[in-house]
Structure formats: C-alpha cells, structure tokens
Amino acid sequence: LEGGYNPWTFNKDIEVNRKMKHFLVSPEVRYWFCESFNGHFVGINANYTQFNLSAIPVPEMFYALNKPAGFTGAAENTRNQGWAAGAGITYGYQWILGKHWNLEATLGLGYWYTVYDQYENRKCGLFQDSAIKHVVGLTDLGLSFIYMIR
Fold this sequence. Notes:
mainly beta, 8-stranded antiparallel beta sheet
C-alpha cells in the first residue's frame, strides 16, 4: 500500500499561487517469481487521488506523465482541481541491500479516469473549463529504498 499527501501551498502570493496539494492512495497485489521481496515481480494496482495544482513548472517532455493527474497543457498557466481513479499492471524488481534494507524499481501502465476544473493560476482565479478525461498511461513509476521490519 502506497500513499502520498501534501497539504501545503508553496507560495501564497496573489499573482503566483504555486501549489501541489494532493492526497493519493495506491494499493497493489504482487506475485513474486522466485522469492518474496527479492527479484522480479508483477502486480495489479489501483489508484485514487484528489488534487489542487497550480503554477508548477513542468518540462514539456513530462506533460504526458502528468496527464493522469489532470493536466491539459502547461501546468504553470492554470490551476487544476479535481480527482482521478485508475488501475493498471506493474512490473518491478527488488534488490536486497542488507539485513533490513532493499532497493526497488517499479513501472506500471494502465488506465486513468479523471474529472477536474481549470482556473486561472492566481489566488481565487476565474473558472475556465471543466473536463472529464480517459487516459492510458503511467499508473506507477518509482525507485524506493525499503526498510524491512523483521
């Protein structure tokens, strides 16, 4: 079970209003090919997030990665607020580093359904548009250090 939470606004300036507020939960079921918590695995994941993002400078090459979270176009020009849910398949590999430490790399692909509103990116910005999107793309991408409690 993975999760993420960020309740803060980075800059409360009326003209900038930079924020990346979100709540994310992502449960996953895994099948390990040889030994649990060591080597190759595949999984099925589900995802749910609520977000309120604005004025985040995202390089153009990453827009496709951010579409599942509700972005359309340049994220630094709008504030996007809504939710998304999805599911996908995951492939990963885990390396044992020591008695309690592991390193894990994961890649997940699947489907996202997202509903969001777009506003000007200033504080209390004007409503611009609502959207419902169906997106096929990343559902998981990670490199994690893991502490094993034994």
